[in-house]
Each structure stands twice: as structure tokens, then as C-alpha cells.
Amino acid sequence: MVAYLSQEKVSRRGYIKYVGGIVVVAVVAGAAYYGWQTYQAPKKEVEIEQQWISGPEGDNADKTAKLWNEKYAEKTGIRVKTTALAFEGYFDKVSAQTVSDNPKPDLFEIWSYNTGQYAPYMEPMNEYFKDTKLFSSPDGEPYNFNDMDPACIEAGTYKGKIYNLWDSNIHIVQMYRKDIIPTPVETWEEMLDLARQNTRSLNPNSKTKYGMCIPGRADYGYTWKAFCGCYWSYGGQYFKPGTFEPDFNSEAGLKAARIWYAAAKENLIPPDVPSWGFLEVMAAQQSGEVAFALNWQPVFVTLMDQKQSPIVYDKMAMDSPPGVKQPDGSIKRAPYRGGNVVGINIRSENKNEAFKYLAWHMFGEGMWNAVALGGNPGNLRPYLDPEALSKYPWIADQVRMQLHKNGRAEPAYPELPVIQAVGFRNVHSLLTLQVTPEEFVENLQKEATDVLKKAGYF
Amino acid sequence: MTSARKRRLSIYLKLKYLLVLPVIAVLLIFSLYPFLSQIYLSFYSVSIRTYWEPTFVGFDNYMSQLVNPGYFWRSLGITILFVVIVVLSELLLGLGLALLIHPLSRVTKIITSLVVMPMFVAPVFVGALGRLAFHSIVGIVPYYFNFIGISPPSLTRFFDAFAIVCALDIWQWTPFIFLIVHAGLMSLPQEITDAAKVDGAGGWNQFRHITLPLLRTVLGVAIIFRTMDAFRTFDIPYVLNQGGPGSPVGGTTTISILIYTMMLHYQKIGDASAIVVVLLIFLNLMIPRITKYLGI
Q1: Rounded to two decimals, what is the model's pTM?
Q2: Using CA atoms, how far apart are residues A155 and A159, in angstroms rounded to an integer?
């Protein structure tokens, strides 16, 4: 082209023809693009998109959405589409979506302790609950706000505004081989003793290669959550009373750290536990080579499944994690409690429709459908319903383990995910024996203090 | 020059610049703007929540990463060690493979297509495969190590984890060097080698005095490409063991993993940006020296 234009004999007409041709093509292309962008087929339905982490809850949510689409899409004009993203890097994706002011998805899942972090990007729902047209079933039957566990509402609230609703509980529980350990482990010291008895390198007659297993991945929330259950049961707390000053370098912190350190130092846990998440811990239990584990509660369903866990399916039992014996003989347990929660994207163009569906999912028929599929919701009705308790063993287990009563959640503030990151990275370092328990609590205290000081908490 | 010709030249020059304007605009938007944003953010304390309301902190982020606690230097050290080991190993193995296969003219194509297969596997998958393969209970590698009575490598020991990450990278990217060297060998003039043979030069002398000097530029290009790539390594060590053992700078925490961790786990977008800026300065000082040394 340049060669053609640079020829001496190219006339003005030639230039005009050539440039004119380019202009015409550009104009036609631009017009076509504009027309394509602005054309909207007449809409009969609103489609809302809900985004979940792929896994049990994501599958559950997809099936529940399909139920809604079958029964109510035509009636309400709201159709629900589910997107399930990979667990790895999910929050990186959500962060990018929210910061970029993307109107989609209309609903997205986060975890309860991310409430403060994502609050600027979620729609407050306080006023929606007051609208009886929205906060009711597709048939017009109003829902009861008090059906939701108040602790769950509190976890989804930041500065008085409700940003999300609790779909399912996250608990860290003990899962043990009942053929080896006949009754649930009661205290952390007992856990170590049983682990020693059931580790082949210490006891050649042991049925299992390792006595226990815990998550230890460096980038993993459960690594910290499992540790929290131990820390809190020793009387530990996040902050000094009445302040936002961390309180990790306490006697409780040291005691909990010593338990974790001993498990790693004495080789009671598999050596690569520091790179394990809940799936690897579950795989270790499925292999039959681990007697006891602390893990995320829903994996128990897989361990009980004959097809998926042929070696151990009939040998597993579950209970609240161990605790600390009190002077009066009782056991103080503080199992970690968090939740998969769902909120409305503040940039969504279909907020009313999104809330209508969300209310059905959390308070109505959708909630019961999720329970039937294996869910354990934040809504209290299943736990108080005798039929549900007899029909759904996972619901009965929750009540038996008193997870609602004893379960402890982390305090809700925006920097919580960062404190968690500090936590799980330090626990990982403890399990790799790179720090002693004393160094662990000091590092944890220092890093958490730095984070909160920089954020202006004190 | 006639006035008509001058006019045509003027139009031609204007048209030339006009026509490359769209490309320049794309480059500015997708390269220069993000780069300038990084420099801007490096002077602010900013998280996901405060992304649109950052707080100016001056050089605090730089001090934090370079001085106290100085994670940048530790991670850079691990990255440089990783780069040196993998690039050197891949160079030797790739060159060796290419020299081995080059004379086998009849089956070269078949062997080449087999050798380059690891390159087509996504690095994330290589990391995930490694995690499964080295699982202490169900993994195949510990199984065979235990079978022959040797303590298996563990992802939670510094040396082992580092060696595993290097091994996986070498397995995946040696074929890249092989391909480049192989192409270089194919383009070498046969007459020189024939003349050397006639003069009585043996295999080693031919390689040392003829093949290697002629391949110098090709090898230099291969080294530059692999060095740049290896410097950016993220997938394999992150999926394998999240840059551990240890944290926030563990045994396999490359600089890319550190940037990622700072930005998304610690929510220190400003710190991550500071690392990027310092890294850019460092690489701009390093790359010209390497290219000059290699004679490219």
C-alpha cells in the first residue's frame, strides 16, 4: 500500500479513491457494530446470574436454580443461570469483578468473613426485607425474617447493613475411624496421645500409618480455621477486651501452637500436610492410612459413600472437635463456624429480581430443596423440624454436635481476610517446623498488629 | 523535486502516521496505562476495599519490601537461583538432545514430535500432577522411593521442594531449547563440517571449534527467551505447594508468587506494585548486560 502510494504516478484521484474506500468500510463497520450493540430483542424474562464456587454448594445451588426455573420462571419472569467457578483463585476473580464495576453476576457467593471486605460492592438488603412483594414466595406467602439464625444475620451485617444471606455452614469437625477410636476425642492432649498410638513409626502395631491429619496449606483458610478451634477452646481471643488490639501472643496461643507443633515434630501427621487442603486430607482418610482428622464438615458425606470411599465408608464417625477440660470436668469446645453467603451485586441491573430469587433460596422452598440435597443452611427451621431431623442425618448431626450452640465465628471487620491470611501462613510455617511455638505467636501478633494499625484500628 | 511530488510525499507521510495510530493507541491503553498505574499505586496504601480511595504513603511500600522485612530480596534470590539452575540444565539437556537426534535424519520428525510433548501441557496441570504424584500417602513417587528403600522427597522440605519445582520445569521446557537448537543445527552449512572431517577433526573438536561457535547466536536467543520465561514462573510452584515450604517467602516463592500473595492475600496492592516497579528497574539493568555478554 505504501509502495503504491509512494509511486510518482499515483494521482490525486487515486489517493481519494483509496482513502475513501477505507473510510466507507470503517463507517459501514461502525454502523453495523452500533446496530448490533443497541439492538435488543423484546424481553420476556429477566435472566439473573448467580455465581458460586464449584463444589457441593455450587452443585446444590445449580440444582435449586433449575427447580426455580421449572416451577416459577414463567410465572415470575425471572430465570436463573448458575455459573460455577473453580475453587482455586475464586476470590481473585471476585475481587477483579467487583473492582471493575461489572454488573454481572447479579448474585455472588463469598464467605461470611469477607462481608466487610466486599461491603462496598454489595447491595444492602435492609429495605428489601420490608417489601412484602419481594420478601415472599412466588405464590405471595410472606417469609419470616426471624427464621434465619441471628448469628448468621450478624455475620452478614456490616455497620448496620445486611449485605448477604447465609446459605450453608462451614464447620471444622473431627472425623475419626470408629473401629480404632471408639468414642469421640475429647481433648487436644488426648488427640495427640491417640495419634501417637496410631502412628506406625511410633507403634509398629498401628492399623494406620499416621495418627492424625489436619489441613496445612499456606494459602488456605481451613489451615487457620482448624487452628482457631484449638486456640479458642484454650480461652484465646482475637482482640484484647474492648479493643481492636490482637491478643495472639497469649498463654492460649502458646498452648494451641504447641499442640500443632507436636503433631508435626513427632511425625504424627503426614510430612506433606503443609501443602494439603481439605481434599488432600479427605484423600488421606479415604486411603485408610489416617486414624483421625480435623476437616471441613461436608467431606464426611464423601467418606461415608461406599463408591467413593470403599476402604473406610463403614468405619467413619464425626463429632465436634476436641476441646479443653475445665476445672468442673466439662469440656470447653469452640468449633470454628463460618458460612457460605450470597449477596446482590451493587451494580446489578436486576436487583429486585435477584432478591426475589435469593429470598426463595434462603427462606422458602429453595432452602428445603438445598437441605434435601445435603445442605446445612443458616435458616433455623430444618433444625427445629422433627421430620427434617429424622429424614436428614446431616441436619441431625449438626444438632447432636451442638455446632449452633458452641460454634464460634470470627469477628466481622473488613481486614478479617487479611488477618486470616496472616494466620494461615503462620500456621503453615509452624507445621513446617520453621518456627517454634514461641516464635509463631510473636510473629502472628506482630503481623496482625501491623495490619490493624495500618488500617487505623488503633 | 516537483511541487506535485512534494505534495504526494507530504500526504504519504501523514497517511503513514495516521494508519499506525490505531496500533499505537492499543499499545498505549494496554501497556503504558497499566504500567503508569502500577507506578502510581506503588506510592499508595490500597486494598480491594479501598481501591477507589487509596491513601498516599510515599515510599513506605518500597521500604517495606526492600528493607523491613525485605521480602523482595529473599524472593528475588530464590527466583535467580531457580532461573540459573533451570536455564543451565535445560540448555545442556536441550543441546545434548538436539546433537543426539540431529544425525538421525530418518526418524528426526517422529522423535521431535515425541520430545516436544511436555511443552503442550499447561503449567498449571504440571503443578497439579506434581502435587498428586508427590502426595505422601497416595502418590506414585513416594511409593517407588519407599519400594527401593529411600526416603521420598517431600514438598515440605526446602531443598526437596525446590528440586521438585526445578525438575518439573526442566521436564516441561527442555524441549523448547531442543527445538531452537535443532533448528539452528539444521541451518548450519554442511560444507564446513565436511571440510573439518576431511582435515581429520574428530567429533569433539568439530563441536568445540565449529558447531558451538556457529550456534552461539541461536543459543543466546534460547537463553534470553528461557530466562525471561523462567523469571516469570508462577504456575508450577504455586499449584504445587503455594510457594512453600514457609511463608510469606517460602522455599519456592518466586517473585511472581510474592507479587500475587502481596496483592491478593495480604491485600497490599501498593506493596505488590512497588515490587513490580523495582523488578522492572532490576531487569532493565540486567537484560542489556546479559545480551551484551552473549553477543546478541
Answers
A1: 0.79
A2: 11
Q: What is the pLDDT of residues B204-243, one digit of tens each?
A: 888 888 888 888 888 888 988 899 899 999 999 999 888 8
List the domain range (segments joined by +) for residue B49: 3-56
Taking CA–CA distances from B158, the nearest residue in chain A reads A432
pLDDT of residue A87: 81
Q: Which CATH number belongs to the domain containing residue B237 in this structure?
A: 1.10.3720.10
Whether B173 and B206 map to the same domain: the answer is yes
Contact A429 B246 (CB under 8 A): yes
Say whether residue B266 is in contact with chain A using an 8 A CB cutoff.
yes
Residues B150 and B249 in one domain: yes
Say if B65 falls within a structural domain: no
CB contacts under 8 A, A 37-76 vs B, are: none
Residue B114 and residue B22 share a domain: no
> How many C-beta atoms surround the C-beta of residue B36 within 10 A?
11
Query: Hey, which residues does A268 pair with through a beta bridge?
Result: none
Q: Identify whether residues B26 and B100 lie together within a single domain.
A: no
Distance (Å, whole) CA A340 – CA A378: 9
All three cell numbers of B55: 491513601
Rg over CA atoms, chain A: 27
Backbone angles phi, psi at A52, to 5 degrees: -130, 165
Q: Where are the alpha helices (DSSP H) in chain B?
A: 3-27, 33-41, 60-66, 71-101, 108-115, 123-133, 140-147, 158-186, 190-198, 203-206, 212-231, 235-241, 255-260, 269-294
Q: How far apart are CA B1 and CA A290, in angstroms?
A: 90
Res B193 pLDDT > 80: no
Could you tell me how many CB contacts below 8 A there are between chain A and chain B? Answer: 112
Is residue A62 predicted with pLDDT exceeding 60? yes
Grid cell of B250 as nine digits = 517460602
Q: Judge whether B61 lies within some domain.
A: no
The answer to whether B71 and B278 have CB atoms below 8 angstroms apart is no
Do B98 and B233 belong together in one domain? yes
C-beta atoms of A425 and B15 within 8 A: no
Min distance A284 CA to chain B CA atoms (Å): 7
- Residue A148 is given by DSSP the state B
Residue among B33, B34, B41 at smallest CA distance from B275? B41
* Domain A46-122+124-162+338-405 shares a fold with domain A171-336+410-454: yes
Q: What's the distance, Cα to Cα, between the start and end of chain A in Å?
A: 67
* B262, B275 Cβ separation under 8 angstroms: yes
- Residue B156: list chain A partners with CB under 8 A: 271-275, 431-432
**Same domain for B229 and B147:** yes
- How far is the alpha carbon of A58 from chain B, nearest alpha carbon, in Å? 22
The closest of A150, A165, A216, A154 to A380, measured between CA atoms, is A150
Q: Of A149, A125, A154, which is closest to residue A359 (Cα–Cα)? A: A125
Q: What is the pLDDT of residues A288-327, one digit of tens each?
A: 999 999 999 888 888 989 999 999 999 999 999 999 999 9
Q: Can you tell me the mean pLDDT for A416-423?
A: 89
Using a CB-CB distance cutoff of 8 angstroms, which residues of chain A are in contact with residue B45?
A: 454
d(CA B82, CA B149): 29
Q: Where are the domains of chain A?
A: 46-122+124-162+338-405, 171-336+410-454
Q: Which of A2, A272, A426 sits opposite B135 (nearest CB)?
A: A272
Residues B46 and B131 in one domain: no
Task: List A residues 279-308 in contact with B (Cβ-Cβ < 8 A).
Answer: 280, 283-284, 287, 289-290
Pick the CATH number of A171-336+410-454 from 2.30.30.100, 2.60.120.10, 3.30.420.40, 3.40.190.10: 3.40.190.10
Assigned superfamily of A46-122+124-162+338-405: Periplasmic binding protein-like II (3.40.190.10)
Number of domains in chain B: 2
